[in-house]
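# step 3/5: fold
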Amino acid sequence: MTGEARPPGAGPEAVAGRRLRGYAEIAASSLILGTSSTLIQISTMPASLLLVLRMALGGLALGAVFLLTHGLEEVRRSGCVRRMVVLGFVVALETMLFFAAIRGAGVTVAVSLEYMAPVWVALLAPWALRTRRRASDMAAVAVAAGGMALLVLPVATAGEGAVTLPGMAAGLLAGLLFAAAMMLVSSMRDAGVRGSTLALFYCAATVILFTPLAVWQAAAGGYRFTWTDAWIVAVQGLVYTGLCLSLYTDGLRFIRVEHAGILGYLEPVTAPLWALLFIGEAPPWTTYAGGAVIVGAGIFVIVFGAREARAPTRSLT
């Protein structure tokens, strides 16, 4: 879980190349995903319908790749089919909660709460994956709690309707599920499953789970499809789902999950800038400060956790 995958017989140069690939994939996908939240705000489509159409379109593209590259054999050979199915439904629920958080709490708060996931990984990994608990993990949780306070307290005292308690709760739960997904992917790093294959499981689970809700919400709300929503679905499905989810998931196979988490912070760091540019959402300074503190908590996990990990065993980084 905490170390990078090292294939049998792989030399230092090969391991370094895999590591560089993982860093590049996660950094690139996170930078692109920074614009995703703003598009969700622009869309007038019910969140469940946007999610289902996004995943259906992404799934069609990924499904073609899967069939053309002998994906069935890859899945059978991995021996991880059950975990892939569980992972698919975890990501489906996480994405739906994230959409709900954006609608109920705004881009900046929703993204910041979801990206507490690396801190939850540090807290839950010893229990879920039977790894050693580190003192730095608990310190990081305390630091992140301070960041959450900066996000939540101004909202609670201002009495404004733009950010709701259910929206913030959805963001927090999305972060927990994001952490669970990261740990599940990391547990399968030696199974030889590509990121695009795992992303296909995300798409299938989402379509199965949320299509009834999407149909009901669209019909009950009298929603009418627009050209703006059409291009948003296209970008969300082909770019954010087909490309970015595949890159991010694939990158998790090659680097420490803590490092993946901190690189993933490129998304919440840039998301408020895109929100300000495209939809004029200008959060108070406390929101930026809270986001910075949460990012600091993730950095704390990596820097001090790596020092503790090197003491009793050989370095894996």
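# step 4/5: annotate
The longest helix spans residues 195-220.
# step 5/5: archive (pending)
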